[in-house]
Amino acid sequence: MLAAPGPAWDRLPVRVLVAIALLSLLGSGRAAAQIATAATPVYHGTLDIRPASGHIDRTASTAGQATIKIRGWKLELSLFSNGIYPDQEPMVVAFGDNNFRLPAGALVAKRHGRLFTYRAPRDPNARGIRFVSILTESPKVYRVTVTLVGLDLSDLLTKTPICYPTAVIIGDDDGFSGTEVTTTPPVFKSRHLIVPKKCTADSWPWA
User: Fold this and answer.
1) By residue range, what is the domain housing residue 138?
2) Has residue 36 been placed in a domain?
3) Number of other CB atoms surrounding residue 4 within 10 Å
């Protein structure tokens, strides 16, 4: 003969333990998904360089100012990263001695949070980030497309190629690589720049 079910209070401790376990899991998820308020790298990932192009000004008044269009560079986060939130965290694109920043909220989330974009207001004299697109491939891998204007690459006027330390920093995550930049022949007269490959940068200067 089956025993009659016990009173409701017999099952109460089990329900309490289950509730505590669920709250603990939810709390740990929130702790792991903290949104950074500053673009200060803590988790160091990698930046996979693909060929890119641009141009450099050689006129006397603005000699050395350059534009580079980056398409589809792979930003791979550290295994220890707690994730990035491009529409809620500040962003920095560092290229040599150039550091171009966007405040938190500058990028807009699209496609149910898989794509984040920014386009600067029209200003022909502006320096900085003109356009950004960040496409999510997985929680740890993103494709970054960026147009940078007003870069100071004046050392390319007398030397080529040059390996520039380059980083994309979003909140407390970054991807870093060296980026080789050269001018096309005739190298000290041409306005055209190319990024043929990655290179070994001397240091990571954004610690």
Assistant:
1) 43-199
2) no
3) 6
Structure tokens given for 154: 């004046």
User: Averaged in consecutive runs of 10 residues, what is the pLDDT profile of the chain (207 residues)?
Assistant: 46 46 42 77 95 94 94 97 96 96 97 96 91 97 98 95 96 96 92 96 69
* Overall domain count for the chain: 1
Cα(11)–Cα(100) distance, integer angstroms: 59
The span from the CA of 130 to the CA of 105, in Å, is 16
pTM of the model: 0.81
Q: What is the pLDDT of residue 47?
A: 96
